[in-house]
Write a structure and sequence with these properties.
Oligomer: single chain
Mean pLDDT: 92
Shape: elongated
Number of helices: 13
Low-confidence stretches: 1-22
Helix content: 25-40%
Radius of gyration: 25 Å
Strand order of the largest sheet: 10-9-8-11-12-13-14
Structural class: alpha/beta
Largest sheet: 7 strands, parallel
């Protein structure tokens, strides 16, 4: 693993030629991939950063490694894969911004051990996803997918058979987080009865009712909407067994993660008539670009709505995400705040005024703070403020110091055996 030290611009921490620089915003490079919303660039430029490179799509692994050289901050969406090899190739990478909800595309543990915090926007597109799920509920219960497909073939399926209102029907929500709970509220406002199941005890909103098991929810719901994260426990959650537990003639919506549903089992249940229809927005394997062919066992089934992972793809959601993630990257660059990082000790910091701010990222081992403070004691440098937080294998210490000459101080801090990287802000 290549571990770097960032002090305005990044260098290797153990080289004799190392020098620590003040934060020169003109030298800090941002790489924004996959056509991020323009507000991301606006936010970064508004904070005084001008070295920004944008690319419209995801890059191949080789292109990504080359493009990451010299980059301090990278912004990605869901197609870019920042694995260990990509992180190793990024010789100056300081932080990663996932301009989306999920962070599965990043090797979080490897980034953590490299001292690189990862930021995302976990709640910025909740309304957009909830609205899509509700719209799909209406479409499915009216039989729109099948009637639409038939009309495109010149057929005329004018019939009320199997077409119902959503009012009075039961919506079962699996995963009652920010999206699931908001979906419940807007569904209830349209007259639906809402039940939900979550692995944690959640306070019901409105008239929603909790169910103790997913099996009991599946047996009761007319429509099941999934809103769970991708974890070991949720992968293939909707297996053939659980799908068979659903009410005959019910519908399934998945706008959560592609790994949650056994697609082959769902396809079989739809073909057999046990499931009346489905709306799927996420898939176990998705095309890496708009030019790659999409394939799925569900293709060709008239009573299935297939959408290309667009649950959060509204102009409003993308603008919200751009502002949220870009502001987190700027905040970390400006003063070291790591609040809401998904893989890193979370420290919320005030501005450091006229003091020098030193950040020390290290392996979470006993005695490191003592070693750090000993360096300051030996150098006779006063610490005006000190902040410490640890999480997992990482420790993060931030110190505001009253000293004009910190060159030798930074070299001594880098020599502490547990050091991963150091950084200084003037």
């Amino acid at each position: 693993m290549k571990l770097n030290s960032y002090a305005g611009s990044l260098t290797r921490p153990m080289r004799n030629s190392d020098r620590n620089y003040s934060l020169d915003k003109a030298k800090i490079k941002f790489l924004l991939l996959e056509g991020l919303h323009p507000k991301a660039r606006e936010m970064i430029e508004g904070a005084g950063y001008s070295n920004i490179v944008e690319k419209p799509g995801a890059l191949t692994p080789a292109e990504l490694k080359q493009s990451l050289k010299g980059v301090h901050f990278v912004g990605i969406r869901s197609r870019t894969q920042l694995d260990a090899a990509a992180i190793d190739a990024a010789d100056r990478l300081t932080a990663i911004g996932c301009f989306c909800i999920g962070t599965n595309q990043v090797d979080l543990q490897y980034a953590e051990l490299a001292g690189i915090p990862v930021f995302n926007a976990p709640f910025a597109n909740t309304r957009s996803v909830a609205e899509l799920a509700l719209a799909e509920t209406i479409m499915l219960m009216r039989g729109i997918p099948e009637k639409n497909a038939a009309a495109h073939r010149g057929e005329w399926l004018k019939s009320a058979s199997g077409s119902t209102e959503i009012r009075g029907k039961t919506l079962g929500i699996v995963g009652y987080g920010h999206i699931g709970s908001q979906l419940g509220i807007i569904a209830e406002s349209m007259g639906m009865r809402v039940i939900f199941q979550d692995v944690e005890n959640k306070l019901p909103l409105g008239n929603a009712e909790a169910r103790g098991s997913i099996e009991s929810l599946l047996k009761e719901a007319d429509v099941v909407s999934l809103h769970v994260p991708d974890t070991e426990e949720t992968r293939n959650l909707m297996s053939a067994s659980l799908i068979s537990t659903m009410r005959k003639g019910s519908y399934l919506i998945n706008a959560a993660r592609g790994t949650v549903v056994d697609i082959d089992a769902l396809s079989n249940a739809i073909k057999s008539g046990h499931i009346a229809g489905a709306a799927i927005d996420v898939f176990p394997k998705e095309p890496k670009s708009n030019n790659e062919r999409f394939e799925s066992p569900l293709v060709g089934l008239d009573n299935v709505l297939l959408t290309p992972h667009i649950g959060g793809s509204t102009l409003e959601a993308q603008a919200n995400i751009a502002v949220e993630v870009a502001s987190k990257l700027v905040r970390y660059s400006d003063n070291g705040t790591t609040r809401s990082a998904v893989n890193f000790p979370q420290v919320s910091l005030p501005d450091h005024g006229l003091t020098r701010r030193i950040m020390h990222i290290h392996h979470n081992e006993p005695g490191v703070l003592k070693d750090i403070n000993q360096v300051f004691f030996d150098s006779e440098v006063n610490i005006a403020a000190q902040y410490l937080q640890t999480e997992g294998g990482i420790g993060y210490v931030v110190m505001d110091v009253e000293s004009d000459d910190v060159t030798s101080l930074m070299k001594d801090l880098a020599k502490i055996p547990a050091t991963i990287r150091t950084r200084i802000l003037h």
